[in-house]
């Protein structure tokens, strides 16, 4: 892959192939025989929110890599490190001097470079002056049947330290956060105030400045008491000195330490952490620079409260872990992680135990007070809660969900019992938002409604649906286990997505304050992973109508298409993250109602891959699409279609015989059989193309043959886009 030119030359210069320096070659041992040093960059800040750290570290690595490559600086591997107080990049084997390189620039067209007498025009003279060359040293290159003036020059090698110093001040500006703040007169924004800057290329200290902070070769260790400045001599010295100052900059190492310490404490007692603690562990890793794990005791009340309540109290307010025995039962203990050493750890433990006890007693009181009334009573209080500005109240949202639940059969195949359960669950789905417990512990929305309804003797199916409506909340969380829970979650997320897009808001970059990506990803994951058959086009249409009925639709123009386009983008991203982009390509343009069938179709295509017939069919489908480009697929053929040649008649007969069989197989999700039926068309299609001229001079003949191909385009497209198979 060819390096990108420096920004100053980006539009006109490119490296000549003979002088190109491959990044891959640059990282081989050949280059290591020359002078190289490691590059270390640190941005020291006030404590960053844990949820910001991983993304900010990834951005810093990406930008440093881009700047090094654009500056033609040869380098080895680049790694990112982070703690709550620092973002760090370490680039190995950075060559201290760039290579001299020959480059060429494209100038004006030759026709405008010389006048009638053959003298250089101002256009050519200006180009040559800008490039520092003589007009006599230029030459002509034909590009797309037009001649252009080119000039070649040699760019001398530069010190890498100077090039790095040039881009260092841009790095903090290039890192974006969901929320930014400014703290000094220049108005510079970052997630938290920057307190230190450091950059070392080997032993050389690089200089830069941001928001009044000057870089140096000093940093600080663990924030305990008044930490003294640490002078750093080199990148290797940085890692060693920070470890001595009780800072572990590698988040993966901090995670391993937490897991190891937790195992050492819990295993002898026969205890363990829950299987659903991954997200909390990710957060805790980004809350500490030097982890020390300790085990605390919970009061007796913890065994009397619902597990979800105890877990939420510990996680949401204490960033601590609930502990289980080997059978998966909750035990009256918690695991917590201190940021620092084990000095006075007993005092820290007792303090955490006091906090846990107070929080759990509060939770028990809230539950007792909330349950003085049935869950139904809280539905009437939803008109005091705003769903979102311009979109009305939670009461209006509940009404929309009830309407979507009442018409389930138009977008999903459900039984009357499932539809009734879905309607009842939709009616009560948001009731717990008005309870004291959820107002205090927002992460328990849905869960508390299920707890209260269950304790009051409510239907287990409705209880499960209410609890599952917000699932999945993260990529690591499983989708709902019950069908009604899945459908309630889908209609809730579709309603949210529709409403927020109706306000004109569109998520961009790393900003998504209303959780649109989470909603879109939840819809896609639920349908794909459950294999549900949900017609999203109809569902979105009904959701738009629901907003119109409640009079809360600020921007109705093209809203249905906007929502569908957004969902299609989430679908593509889902398969990209699963590294299934190539497998998804043949299925990308299936109707959205087929979303749940995509995994089975992928499997069927995978099993059929490699066959000669499939390759032939893929080539034929590609040819059909090229010939019929711009023409719609035809779902049937008229009886009097002007087809007379034997090859035409055989193809028509084969196609009309295959179509109903393919539709029948698709209806019962027998995708391998549908593919094999399509493959039966490979021979007659090939013979047709070998012997028939589609674009005949006779317009009626040509039209008939094009219509036949449009019919084939429809039949094959029912299964997949064979032309995208590789």
Automatic annotation (TrEMBL):
GO CC list: cytosol
Cell compartments where the protein resides: Cytoplasm
GO biological process terms, semicolon-separated: glycyl-tRNA aminoacylation
Pfam families registered for this protein in UniProt: tRNA_synt_2f
Superkingdom per UniProt: Bacteria
Major enzyme class: ligase
GO molecular function: ATP binding; glycine-tRNA ligase activity
The EC number(s) this enzyme carries: 6.1.1.14
InterPro entries attached to this UniProt entry: Gly-tRNA-synth_bsu (IPR015944), Gly-tRNA-synth_heterodimer (IPR006194)
Keywords linked to the UniProt accession: Aminoacyl-tRNA synthetase, ATP-binding, Cytoplasm, Ligase, Nucleotide-binding, Protein biosynthesis
Catalytic activity: tRNA(Gly) + glycine + ATP = glycyl-tRNA(Gly) + AMP + diphosphate
Subunit field text: Tetramer of two alpha and two beta subunits.
UniProt similarity note: Belongs to the class-II aminoacyl-tRNA synthetase family.
Protein name listed in UniProt: Glycine--tRNA ligase beta subunit
Source organism per UniProt: Candidatus Cryosericum terrychapinii
Gene that produces this protein: glyS
